[in-house]
Design a protein that fits this description.
The chain is mainly alpha-helical. The chain has two domains: 1-37; 43-119, no CATH class. The protein has five helices and two strands. Strands 1-2 form a two-stranded antiparallel ribbon. A hairpin with a 6-residue loop joins strand 1 (5-6) and strand 2 (13-14). The radius of gyration is 19 Å and the shape is elongated. The structure holds zinc ion (ZN).
Length: 123
């Protein structure tokens, strides 16, 4: 399993994280592995997975949000739970007037937008 480690000073890709940076000479402490490299996520994959409520967000690592969508959408659409939508709405930041179907669509769009944001280096 190859892990990509970036130099904490200049951001160069380090092939050997235990050796000094070949570009700027920044010494490797062995304990500092630079800024956490965000796994790149494919927006198309996230969108496709989001067809299953919450799965797109699990894929993106947004587990709490994924769970909220899973409970909110899955509970409403498939299990008929009488969930407190305002609580879920607060968790995911969605106006709950949308209802289960609207929330489902929103979650798919949200998964896509989140993946695009992560792709461009945002959070
Ligand atoms: Zn460097």
């Amino acid at each position: 399993m190859a892990s990509e480690v970036l130099c904490g000073r200049c951001g160069a890709l380090l092939t050997n994280p235990n050796a000094p940076c070949p570009r700027c000479g920044s010494p490797a402490s062995g304990s500092y592995y630079g800024p956490r490299v965000r796994p790149r996520k494919n927006p198309a994959v996230a969108t496709a997975l989001a067809i299953v409520p919450g799965l797109g967000h699990f894929y993106l690592g947004h587990n709490a949000k994924g769970l909220a969508y899973l409970l909110g959408i899955g509970g409403l659409q498939f299990f008929g739970f009488d969930l407190d939508l305002t609580v879920i709405g607060a968790a995911v930041g969605v106006p709950m007037e949308l209802g289960g179907g609207g929330l489902w669509i929103f979650s798919i769009v949200d998964a896509y937008r989140t993946a695009k944001r992560m792709e461009s280096g945002g959070v």
